[in-house]
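Hey everyone, long-time lurker, first post.

I ran two proteins through the pipeline my lab uses and got sequence/structure pairs for each. Pasting them in order. The first:
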Amino acid sequence: MKTKYEPYTAESIRKEGTAWLIFGSVWTVASIGIFIIFPIILQVKDLGVCLALGAFLVIMGPAFFLCGIQKFKEAKRFAQLPKNTRIKNPNAVLFGVDDGAAAEIAAKYYCEKYGKKELTDEDENIIWDWAYDEISYLLAWIFENGYYNPEETEPDLAELAGKIARREAIPSDYMNYDASFFEGNVKDEVVDFVNEYLENSEFIKGHHVAKSGMIIGAYFAEVEAFAKERLNAPLLGFPFTWEDYDAFKGHIDEAFAKYKSK
């Protein structure tokens, strides 16, 4: 499962600062050249206008250069700034299964657990529920806490979300109906939190691990650890239950509290 939003990190900001340094240097050299050469080539008579324009162009170079230095030197501070200036994309996918890859993994675990060689329609429906298990806890939290933003054009989905919030259905029912969950489906007050919480995990050597640094939490790493310790199962290898959700949701609440306190 992937999100399309990549949050700022100290490393990415240093790279951005380096780019500004290079751009500022090139701008300065180029503008000085233009300032000296163009009046000669064009035989400009009004030197006052030429000097004013040239001075403006030359000054812009050091400004870009200084901006790059600030970003490079204070990368950690910039990385910790609130991300509410990020341009939200309602059509960006937060959750989705790509080409059934997750379902294939879930099917493997399901067959191993129950000794299945041939799958019935009921088995396949269960497998698709398992395919969404690593995102189901966060989806349940969004629905249960009233952070779902329904689409006016999809009344059936809004009704289904209400059933999930009342625990009359489970999160995978929503995903099996629509297959994707978008930024636009999350209210503005928590969409940046959801993105940050999701992106704080790294997939290394087949496992989700928390990124280093001052992070609010790492959702996928936390779900994987929870599955191993409480459910004795790998990701995509267990069903969603409200009992397990209640045992896990404290992780989400804690991460959200840290996010709000920043």
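...and the second, right after it:
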Amino acid sequence: MISGKKRKIRIIAAVSAVILLIAAGVIAFVFADLSNEHLIYRGNAFKVLSLDSDRRKAFRIGVSSSIPDIHPYNHGDETAEVLKKLVYEPLLDINNDCDAKYCLAKEIVFEKNGEQATVRLNEDKTFSDGTKLTADLVYNSYQWFIKQETAYNDLLSVIKEIKVVDENTLSFAFYYANIDNIKVFNIPVIYMFDDKSFYGSTALGTGRYAVDTLTVYSEIVLKRNDEYGRKAKYKKVVIQAFDYGNLDSLLDAKDFDVFVITNKIADKVKENGAYNIYEMGKETGWYLEYNTENQDARKAVANLAEGKKFFEATQDFGVYSKGIVSAYIKKPNYYSLLEKGNLKDTKSISFLHNYEAEANGIYRNLAAALKEEGVETSENPMDIYEYHPDEFEEDVLIYYGKLTEVVDDEDNKSFFKNNSDLDAEEYYEALEKHLASQNKITPLSKDTTWYASLAGRNNLDLFD
């Protein structure tokens, strides 16, 4: 028989263990994503502990537009991006930071000066019905997208030919070398399990979730994919249009785990207190493009534009870009590789820019800094449609757009020539180093998208 004293000690020990377990869980709950540099506002995870059991098992994603048809992977919108993460995995995953990781492929190598790529598949991957991934199925998926009207038509138009080499190998030939050709491997891979699939049902994927039900103009419900290999975090995921007209009630009810927000409603999200806010970079942004051969002057101007202080003084939106290919690319990046330069042989610098407030702000701040260095400046403001980044007479162009618009054919060719047999996972690091060494372009900022995400909840790696 256990004495009263020993029983009391055991009860105290058991209660203490439970308290420690709860505390550990709360600590993990509160401090999730602490190191994520995309996290710009931290919500209070304790406000989320009240979710009931069924709600905890489900993850709800709010998107800006409703589901238009039974082929949501076609549209290149928020829904398609979510499905690419969870259901329709690509050959290569390229995240917001331009960190490329293999997904359905186990190797992609660019050859023949960037005009060809060999793809070797991950032989362990299967679709959600148990069908093994093969080169033939990948080929069929690409041919399906090429023949349909989808968001990927322009991207896929660069493909000259796709060949099946063997069961697990394909060869892609491109019409020309371009730094964006790698994105061809970042489109969904789908499996149409019969000829009537296009009309009758949505396709299958290889991701950790599979489509359970899809209701046009309503919602998509995802279930765990038992063929994936490891159990997914949530029992189901629901993708549904977010009704911004009922923002207050949806925030209070915590009906959605993730949804896109704008600057206008960010304050309401912060006031609610239960949501983290993530800022994710986009492709568009501001650059300086040089039309002078004086590398010392280029480096000196770039150093004057470096840093968050310059960004905050010149622009109201977006994020300071540390790198050329991405605002968040890790070192080595453009500014970590940038040398000091000097202006000792430079008496004047001319600038071309459009009429936007940001362009004017960038010019005024650079002009003031250059004046302190004894360099005179002149400006030529022009409508954006009156010039092209490939053709301008001024020394520096202040340009807003995509990176591919300021990288010309010569830059594309020299990149692949200097990086033969380039592995896809090393692609963006090599591209950043190459463009930094050429120093024809200085990154200033990138546009961003903001997401609200319930604090403490596993966010399915949507912000990694």
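Reply from user beta_strand_b:
Welcome! Quick read of the second one: The radius of gyration is 26 Å. Residues 4-30 form the longest helix (27 residues).
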